[in-house]
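pinned: reference chain
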Amino acid sequence: MSDLFIALQHIAPQHALSRFAGSLATSETPWLRDMLIRRFVAAYGVDLNEAARGIGEFASFNDFFTRELKPGARPLADAAQHILSPADGAVSQLGPVSGGRIIQAKGRDYSVAEILGCGADEAARFEGGSFMTIYLSPKDYHRVHMPASGTLAKTSYIPGDLFSVNTATAAGVDRLFARNERLSCRFDGPDGHFASIMVGAMIVAGIDTVWPNQFRTHASAPVHEDFARQGRTFKAGDEMGRFYLGSTVVLLFEPGRVAWRADLKPGDPLRMGEAIATRRPG
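pinned: its structure tokens
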């Protein structure tokens, strides 16, 4: 079944499907909006008890999907000691960066330079460092937050495919996260130079940031932006972006900066704000 699912993704009009889904998701027509929300909640078991608003209070399906949570729904671990999970989801993979490559699944990997959309010099900064890939399922809270404090240095929007990013596809599609549409955000802070990469997926109708940006999802060319002189500084746990329908976040840290929690393994659930690593400031 997984082979058939992957084969269908190769021939599906991925971007056309995503644009169509986006047109439905932005509709503010009450009957359509509320029908989509109710069916989605029922299909995926979304917990609306922790949402700040209920069905009928959202302007569109997108407004529901990027819903804010009630105050205190995601308490933050001690950021003086820990790196925080940037999102709700599950650990897909974690480990060291070796030979300039990141593990995707058993027998499959991809390059740091590819996923970042950067040159060899910047990619080399992460050699021997640490990565974690976090998969966001449809039911999850879909705002992405800062894993550590830092100042935005640069971003790269890289257009690409829109394969699903679930476990079956990660195991069956080469270089999945480095070929899907993505936004790589790089920061400088007490934990060195680090990256948070937001990877698009099938039916993802958009990626956005809390800072003004020049990229537009489903575009035809990369967009590289330099923020080094703008002083956009964030604290650990601050919101940095959001997905309009689900996807994946990949974190990258330089060597010697973090030690992932020893008990974490692929498949483990995560909640935004919980400790995922011990900080080792340089």
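why pinned: Residues 133 and 274 are 15 Å apart (CA to CA). The two ends are 48 Å apart (CA to CA).
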